[in-house]
Design goal:
By secondary structure, this protein is α+β, with helices and mostly antiparallel strands. It contains 3 helices and 8 strands, in the order αββαββββαββ. The longest helix has 15 residues.
């Protein structure tokens, strides 16, 4: 049982380390407006940190194409990004104490809420393929909701 918890915790921490990568430069051509709503924010303290990854390589190497930090507010926060059409995986965490880290406790289990696109909080987070979202070409704003979870 403890080994399983350790593996899940390690997977979560490794995957959540995205927030500290540097965003790669983007061009302005053919961008799509993407509105991300982060839900289940339980406290107004701290910062919501969101990163967008446009490839498996970006996700694995923790080098997002865009990282945005906004003040937390109950019950949700909305972030608008301008992204090129394609596929993108979104990662988010609530830095409740504003120390710049996703804090973890015993066995590496995160103490702060986190979330991913296409993640329900059951089991360990996956890879880019599991969390990617299609960003089609177009002029309408694409809306995505990411609920925060806490173990």
């Amino acid at each position: 049982m403890n080994k399983k918890i350790s593996i899940v915790a390690a997977a979560i921490l490794w995957t959540c380390a995205f927030a500290f990568g540097q965003a790669a430069p983007q061009t302005q051509a053919n961008k799509r407006s993407v509105q991300i709503t982060i839900t289940n924010i339980a406290t107004p303290s701290g910062t919501i940190v969101l990163s967008a990854h446009d490839s498996e390589e970006s996700f694995k190497k923790r080098k997002p194409v865009q990282t945005v930090r906004v003040p937390a507010k109950i019950p949700s926060a909305t972030i608008e990004l301008s992204l090129e059409p394609g596929e993108c995986a979104f990662c988010v965490f609530h830095d409740t104490n504003d120390d710049g880290d996703l804090n973890a406790g015993f066995m590496g289990i995160p103490k702060e809420p986190f979330g991913f696109s296409n993640y329900d909080g059951k089991g360990p987070p996956g890879n880019f393929k599991k969390h990617k979202v299609a960003i089609p070409a177009g002029t309408e704003t694409l809306a995505i909701e990411i609920p925060l979870v806490k173990f």
